[in-house]
Amino acid sequence: MHIPDGFLSGTIAATTWAGGAASLAWSLRAERSLPDRTPAGTLGALAAFTFAAQLVNMPILPGTSGHLVGGMLAAAIVGPSRGLLVMAVVLAVQALLFQDGGVTAYGANLLSMGAFGALGGYAVAALVARLWPGIRGLVAGPVIGAFVATLAGAAFVALVLAASGLYPIAVVLPLMLSLHVPIALIEAGLTGAILATLARWRPDLLHRRERAGGRGSAAWGLFVLALAVAAFAAPFASSLPDGLETAARRLGFAAAARPLWPAPAPDYEPRWLAASRVGTALAGLVGTLAAAALAWALTRRLGRARAVEPHR
Amino acid sequence: MRPGAVLAVGLGLTALAATAPAGLGGEPVPGWSWLAWLLALAAGVHGFRSGGGTLAQVARRVAWLLPFVLMLALPAALLAAAGHRASAAVALVTRSLAATTSAAGTAFRLGPLGLLRGVRAFGVPERLALVLEAALVGLRSMLERARAMLRARSARRGKDGAWGLLLREPGATLRGFGRFGAALLLRTLERAEAQERARVARGADLA
């Protein structure tokens, strides 16, 4: 999934560099506010481990092999902000010393493998750990997180390649997603295998993460999961009418339905990208983002109103 | 030349080469794009030569990327406007390899220590620079340890090699990888903690 130099347009390279730098700045700030201090030597050693683990290729079929990416694993061991730092260093070493991933594509690679792996994957893992308490949840969470994060990262790569003018999004997105389903399964399996062994040998390393996961992480996890469902599951939803539509057709008033105003994406299909799964996925993503923004704004407003309410 | 200046020039040339127009929209590739790619290639080769490297090393460093570059470039060229497909394919491959050569030559010339100095000269946060330094210091020993563990695993398992096919025996292969990864990780963390304790015992501050 490493994008080499020469495949991103100047605008996309600059935008993704800015996004990567912002996520890195956030992780450095978040790390400073943590109560415990992990020495730079330990994070550097973890980066070297992740690099070495990426070189261990696992044969899948004759002539085909896969390897760990490690963003989710790093976050499961040292937390999301430090996990992102570790991935930033791994990707920098790969780009500069081994030509694996481009210098101009560093921002995009950091977002697709670092931010989606360490932050997005961790958010999903934190949500699963809350729903499924105990050591099993601490292993199952990163497994699901690694799967979701790999697919989300692949979708992001497809998006930046399409935005750079290389391929149409309707071609590259389904191709990248279908190619990355087995890769995501391998990433989930390898992450789970290491964490399950750590849970037997050194469970304290995983418990540390349990204390770090808070309500904020769970909310972010729910949000990332909702985005993943909207992007990857919604396009494959059944096209058959639901109960109300069936009843309306049988009773003969389905044709009387009229929209109050022209919707930008009727039946979850944007007008400029109608009758395609990509259009449904985009409509789902935009709808999920809009619903989340509305919920966030309402929560803030209600929270403020409750804060100024006098004691009775 | 100072490491910061070398890194700035090298990365600047890489960025210029990587983003020069390659005629994907059906327009001809501008002359300055070819000039930028030629300059990046020349600078990359010069970086290797001035760092004591050979042309064969340059070729090895960049050639392994060729299949991946072709895999990305050829479909993009096929989707380009008719009549421009061949030129778009050549331009995309040249653009990617020229930018990669420039970046590789810069890194080769500077070496790990020079890269660190260059990164620090760029004003990268010190915490990030320290983690990068620790990663570079531990990289070689980590790779040697991982290779030794793989050799030992391969010797124990006989004709199957280090790993079985994941699809044929998924449970055993994943369990094996779990033990391998966890053992390597624990040794890494314990060694890093021991080094940190020794550093602090010698009077250094917590990094």
Index terms:
heterodimer; A: 312 residues; mainly alpha; Arp2/3 complex 21 kDa subunit ARPC3; two-stranded antiparallel ribbon; 11 helices; 2 strands; 71% helix; 2% strand; globular; B: 207 residues; 2 domains; 0% strand; flat
Polypeptide structure, described:
The complex is a heterodimer of chains A (312) and B (207). Chain A has 11 helices and 2 strands. Chain A is mostly helical and 312 residues long. In chain A, helix 1 packs across helix 4. About 2% of the residues of chain A have low confidence. With 207 residues, chain B is mostly helical. Chain B folds into 2 domains: 119 residues, no CATH class; 76 residues, no CATH class. Helix content of chain B is 77%, strand content 0%. In chain B, helix 2 packs across helix 5 and helix 4 packs across helix 5. The longest helix of chain B has 37 residues. The radius of gyration of chain B is 23 Å and the shape is flat. The model of chain B has no long low-confidence stretch (mean pLDDT 88). Classes of the chains: A mainly alpha (312), B mainly alpha (207). At the A-B interface, helix 1, helix 2, strand 1, helix 4 and helix 7 of A face helix 1, helix 4, helix 5, helix 6 and helix 7 of B.
